[in-house]
């Protein structure tokens, strides 16, 4: 909520010094991926390749969004701020607060974990390790060391706040000093031309922003317990590596990539930069500038959700992106003493509800796009949103025993007086039979009563230019009890290929690794024009039905018609029937697929059984008259983030046909 005396200005008409390049994705306009593509200053070298998914050729140029807040508005907001920087959480001198914190399940083991780290030498981030990604495309080796070093900041800071004996301060100051000597704080995978590593540029990526906030949080909590030298070092390095380039970005003098993006980068980087600024900078007017900048540019992030609040990046990136937006909103609200409440903006309401709608059954979510198969709404984020919106939900206290991020932990331990946001999007009642994201064409169907053998499904229409896109128009997944027997196999382990023009060489990311048709040997194409169009729908207590036209997802020369219809029945333990209706100009091969992490068995000429983790489904297939079902399978030979082997089961019509229907009926098989 914005105080009536403080109004934000857009100032998009100002002269710009930066020209931004947008890209076409394999010949298809792709606005949703435009903002995750590389951005350049025209007529110069690449400043950064920090943002993924460069896929094609140049299509357009647009002026930078230069921030110039009205001086009067800036002064009004500055007058509402404290004379001193924001205290992110309770000071170490507040012993009552830290004695209470020590009793929290999520923090009980902090001291023990920190003691173990004291026994381990600080891992060194060598030049060779940093350059490993640029030479091999492997992210793991360098990131394991990079984040292992940075995680020590929060661990030692929290342990010292809880214990207050000075035991962890030398190790904390050692790791801070070591990190501040690094050539760059940018992740190797986000420094593709090594501009940061070689000192040609100083840019801000996800890792830089989060590190800045962690350092600022440690400084805020520990205060004078840290040496003057360390506190000065923190301020000097954050100013050089974060605040100076951020001001240049906002002025249009440096690449604005994530300021203009509508994906998780925008929220995460804004949260880190703004959180650090509000807790380190003495000047109320300067802090007010950062708050106004966050309010201005974070609207780009909110624009990346569909109007009904769907997050096409998946629930894991909703945790990451919207979680940081919520942390940003709470930090700004506290720093401005309620004058700016970004979570109360109307366009934040539906994205906030996403976490309460996306679970298929408790603990299981769709793994569409680059999502981890085990991802679920973050309990700390959900508890905060439920409280802020007065939602009719309860977060399992057991889930809150895991530790949140450093900044979120500090926020949880601090002020908890945020008002309830009234009059926004109503939250769903627990146990809703379905969730329908109409703008995204994603449907989740649930049983009347959840049991060990009840079946639920998630159906994805969508298009093939979504955030962290997979080519998966018309895919689905089936859950029995709480086991995704027919899952979406989720993300692959990120490498250089993942965010390059070779992305869809991966059989986990192209349509081969999804439960969708293959037409005449052709997989789905990429781009916004490859999309599901709703033909018909009916949602009732007994059953749900949705029908899509998915012909546009294929560049198959003989294809004339391709419709996919889903009918989910809630009778007995549940049933899903998938019907593909197709027509070709001449006889053409047709197959569809099922994916599983489990095992499958043929149990009849047109039937099979799929089993995983003690749950099973029976699949009955009907092909056109005069044809047979040909069953075959192969493993998806990709490095999956699920760390499990995925099998693709092909359901093929033999021989090729010119028109017809294939019916696939799926039932729980106790």
The helix content is: 25-40%
By CATH, the topology of the largest domain is: Glycosyltransferase
In terms of DSSP E residues, the strand content is: 15-25%
The outline comes out as: elongated
The CATH architecture term of the largest domain is Alpha/alpha barrel
Q: Summarize the biggest pleated sheet.
A: 8 strands, antiparallel
Helix/strand-derived category reads alpha+beta
How many helices in DSSP terms? 16
Strands of the widest sheet, in order across it, are 11-12-13-14-21-18-17-16
Radius of gyration (Å):
26 Å
The gist of it:
The protein has helices at 31-34, 71-79, 95-102, 110-118, 127-136, 140-163, 169-180, 206-222, 228-250, 257-260, 264-280, 284-302, 315-335, 346-357, 379-389, 406-413; strands spanning 19-23, 58-63, 434-437, 442-445, 455-460, 463-464, 476-480, 483-486, 518-519, 527-531, 533-539, 543-549, 559-569, 575-588, 590-596, 599-604, 607-612, 615-622, 628-635, 647-654, 657-668. The chain is α+β, with helices and mostly antiparallel strands and 670 residues long.
Textual characterization of the structure:
With 670 residues, this protein is of the alpha+beta class. Helices cover 31% and strands 20% of the residues. The chain has an 8-stranded antiparallel β-sheet with strand order 11-12-13-14-21-18-17-16, with no helix packed on it. Helix 12 packs antiparallel against helix 13 (315-335). The radius of gyration is 26 Å and the shape is elongated. Mean pLDDT is 90; it is low at 1-61.
